[in-house]
Amino acid sequence: MKLLIDDANVQEIERLMKIYPIDGVTTNPTIIARTKKDPKDLLLEIRRIIGKDKLLFVQSVATDAEGIVEDGLAIVECLGENTVVKIPCNTEGLQAIKALSKKGVVCCGTTAYTALQAYLVAHSGAKYVAPYVNRIDNMGFNGVEVVQQMQNILDNHGYDCQIMAASFKNSQQVLELCEYGIGLVTCAPDVIDNFINNPSIDKAVDDFTKNFEAVYGEKTMKDILNS
Ligand code: E4P
């Protein structure tokens, strides 16, 4: 399962890239606006930080099909290969997904709340669909189950479209989808940190260090093996 950062804070992206096996970054208009930076400078900076081989998802902001297509072409032209255009899956967005996919632009249908949206996105040619797990939970449905239903539809019909599950608020939601075999997840920095934020891990490491140092002193394996 690919792991992406759902944030545009460059310090956080640099920090998380150092620690975790990160496959890319996803943004949306709200995430970009939160930084108050110039969007072009910001996106180019993110592309520079993650490198040209990682995935970068950037959302269109135009609201009509023609404008979304123009946004999509500008996004891939500016940010290069491995850039995916996120497009809301409403009636205008689906028209744009069909048009951009025909031109070879890799699209992700975003704002997916229902399994039939995923079907329409995949059938329109998008390579990714982004369901909003926590927002579905907040509507009184089970976000994880809706994503599993989407995965079943994509698998049963053999669509070349992967689920990039989004809008997580806790690591349990991620765990259940990881176990199910979902292709990608995108998570805010605090959700990713919580994958290994566990006092038992720190205690185990402290105990190993204390027990070793009590007998051999403050030495590393390199100090000992090279002496
Ligand atoms: C990513 O594709 C979505 O834009 C994002 O995960 C939405 O997350 P939120 O529900 O926390 O805003």
Spatial order of the strands in the main sheet?
1-2-3-4-5-6-7-8
Average pLDDT for all residues: 98
Shape: globular
Name the hetero compounds present: erythose-4-phosphate
Proportion of helical residues: 40-55%
Strand content: 15-25%
* CATH homolog superfamily of the largest domain: Aldolase class I
The CATH class designation of the largest domain is: Alpha Beta
Uncertain regions: pLDDT < 50 for 5+ in a row? none
What structural class do the secondary elements suggest? Answer: alpha/beta
Count of all domains: 2
Pick out its properties.
single chain; about 230 residues; alpha/beta; TIM Barrel; 2 domains; 8-stranded parallel beta barrel; 8 strands; about 55% helix; about 15% strand; globular; binds erythose-4-phosphate
How would you sum up this structure, described in words?
Helices cover 55% and strands 16% of the residues. By secondary structure, it is α/β, with parallel strands linked by helices. The longest helix is centred in the last third of the chain and has 18 residues. It folds into two domains: 193 residues, Aldolase class I (TIM Barrel), CATH 3.20.20; 31 residues, no CATH class. The model has no long low-confidence stretch (mean pLDDT 98). Strands 1-2-3-4-5-6-7-8 form an eight-stranded parallel β-barrel, surrounded by six helices. Erythose-4-phosphate (E4P) binds next to helix 7.
